[in-house]
């Protein structure tokens, strides 16, 4: 298959990876060398979980072999080294997304980060009612008459916590709808985001459609309303060069396991003043200044949100992952994935009886093209059957509703199949997937 042409600028194209370099990159990922069902593994499920390069695996192992100790709790040499590694990791990851280290809170994943913000806002309402906390904390209280706004594109992790916050506080949950294709109806956004809006939460990149949100326009609406902005950067942090401060969001979350790091580690960015004003999410050891039998006083951020024993080795490994990504070049990764996304979209859309979700190859929504991701529906074949057929050919994809049931329902579907690429994906991987997908309907007797 000829490589799909995209309107990528010459400057971007010059920075893009190419197949020869990607083949060298693949050598850093041991899992990609194996065969599955007698076929070379074609891993197209990085949107769910990415693979790990040796440098990341070695960083975590080296921590356990040389520096394993509790952080912020001991004066012995191992504890000092562990604390230094832990905080150095925070600085590396914070720098990767353009923020200061004390604005970055370690979490288990992005879902925990969103829950942290939502539940801390609920606690702020309780504190305000009981006269606890300063003026900055009381200003964060949410109650009846207030509104929380999301979009119809959201992953459940950026929907359900806000549903629960609305339930607990008496606020109203509203959403910006999408059209029949899944494009945000920005013309309706101004009637949804208004003077009652206290929070606007949205995904930077759709995990189903691969589209980028119009961040500037949405942030401007929130600023006019005086609302907080929460950005789900799970599908953008691994693939784009991010500067969260330049995006002017108040909070943002991302997960390590989608960006070459292990599971069990993620991060929450928050503006320093907001983090210090938020009540803590989990309470216990290591996040306090003074404790009596009646009450406790809490440390400033980020420690006020890091109760108990932390994810130390995972944080060290995430720092190794962002170093790997930076050394490869985030602009080059994005340009390569833009090409792969166009190739996926063009190939899927060309197949009879296969419906591509989201924009077609080269088509821009909200001023941006899709990332290296394509979800689709095969007429007459359930998504799970599609996935099993592809797996028999050694091709790993995601099937189901991708934790986005409302979006699938809006598109008239209960499930879809999704192929997602990353920096270790070659054009040969994409072509093997497209060749196999072209055989699915005939295999299941669904072709006319």
Helix-strand category: alpha/beta
Shape: globular
Largest sheet: 7 strands, mixed
Distance between the termini: 24 Å
Specify the number of helices: 17
| CATH level 1 class label of the largest domain | Alpha Beta
Fill in the CATH topology of the largest domain. Aspartate Aminotransferase, domain 2
Mean pLDDT: 94
Look at the structure and name the CATH superfamily of the largest domain. Answer: Type I PLP-dependent aspartate aminotransferase-like (Major domain)
Helix content: 25-40%
Report the portion of residues in β strands: 15-25%
Q: Order of strands in the sheet with the most strands?
A: 4-10-9-8-7-5-6
Domains (count): 2
Poorly predicted residue ranges: 1-14
Cα radius of gyration in angstroms: 23 Å
Q: What is the number of E strands?
A: 17
Q: At CATH's second level, what is the architecture of the largest domain?
A: 3-Layer(aba) Sandwich
Q: Can you describe this structure?
A:
There is one protein chain. By secondary structure, this protein is an alpha/beta fold. The chain folds into 2 domains: 10-52 and 329-443, Aspartate Aminotransferase, domain 1; 67-325, Aspartate Aminotransferase, domain 2. It is built from 17 helices and 17 strands. The strands form 5 sheets. Strands 4-10-9-8-7-5-6 form a 7-stranded mixed beta sheet, sandwiched between helices. Strands 13-14-17-16 form a 4-stranded antiparallel beta sheet. It has a two-stranded antiparallel ribbon with strand order 1-2. It is globular, with a radius of gyration of 23 Å. Belongs to the class-V pyridoxal-phosphate-dependent aminotransferase family. Csd subfamily. Catalyzes the removal of elemental sulfur and selenium atoms from L-cysteine, L-cystine, L-selenocysteine, and L-selenocystine to produce L-alanine. GO terms for molecular function: cysteine desulfurase activity. Keywords: Pyridoxal phosphate, Transferase. Pfam families: Aminotran_5.
């Amino acid at each position: 298959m000829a490589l799909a042409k995209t309107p990528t600028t010459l400057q971007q194209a010059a920075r893009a990876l190419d197949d020869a370099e990607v083949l060298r990159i693949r050598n850093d990922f041991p899992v990609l060398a194996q065969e599955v069902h007698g076929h070379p593994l074609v891993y197209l499920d990085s949107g769910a979980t990415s693979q790990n390069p040796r440098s990341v695996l070695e960083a975590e192992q080296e921590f356990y072999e040389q520096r394993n100790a509790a952080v912020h709790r001991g004066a012995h040499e191992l504890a000092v080294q562990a604390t230094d590694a832990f905080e150095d990791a925070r600085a590396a990851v914070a720098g990767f997304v353009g923020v200061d280290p004390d604005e970055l809170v370690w979490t288990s994943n992005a879902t925990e980060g969103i829950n942290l913000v939502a539940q801390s806002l609920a606690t702020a309402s309780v504190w305000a009612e009981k006269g606890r906390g300063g003026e900055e904390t009381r200003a964060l209280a949410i109650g009846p008459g207030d509104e929380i706004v999301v979009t119809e594109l959201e992953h459940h992790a950026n929907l359900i916590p806000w549903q629960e916050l609305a339930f607990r506080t008496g606020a109203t949950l509203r959403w910006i709808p999408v059209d029949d294709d899944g494009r945000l109806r920005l013309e309706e956004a101004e009637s949804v985001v208004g003077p009652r809006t206290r929070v606007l939460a949205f995904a930077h990149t759709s995990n189903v459609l691969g589209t980028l949100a119009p961040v500037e326009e949405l942030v401007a609406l929130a600023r006019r309303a005086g609302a907080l902005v929460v950005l789900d950067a799970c599908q953008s942090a691994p693939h784009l060069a991010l500067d969260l401060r330049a995006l002017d969001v108040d909070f943002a979350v991302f997960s390590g396991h989608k960006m070459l790091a292990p599971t069990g580690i993620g991060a929450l960015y928050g503006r320093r003043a907001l983090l210090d004003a938020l009540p803590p999410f989990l309470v216990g050891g290591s996040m306090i200044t003074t404790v009596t039998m009646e009450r406790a006083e809490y440390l400033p951020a980020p420690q006020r949100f890091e109760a108990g024993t932390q994810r130390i080795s995972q944080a060290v490994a995430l720092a190794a992952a962002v170093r790997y990504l930076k050394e490869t070049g985030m602009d080059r990764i994005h340009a390569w994935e833009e090409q792969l996304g166009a190739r996926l979209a063009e190939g899927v859309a060309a197949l009879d009886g296969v419906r591509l979700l989201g924009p077609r190859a080269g088509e821009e929504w909200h001023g941006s093209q899709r990332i290296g991701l394509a979800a689709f529906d095969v007429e007459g074949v359930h998504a799970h059957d599609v996935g099993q057929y592809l797996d028999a050919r050694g091709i790993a994809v995601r099937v189901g509703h991708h934790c986005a049931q409302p979006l699938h329902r809006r598109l008239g579907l209960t499930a879809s199949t999704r192929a997602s690429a990353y920096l270790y994906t070659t054009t040969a991987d994409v072509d093997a997937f497209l060749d196999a997908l072209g055989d699915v309907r005939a295999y299941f007797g669904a072709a006319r």
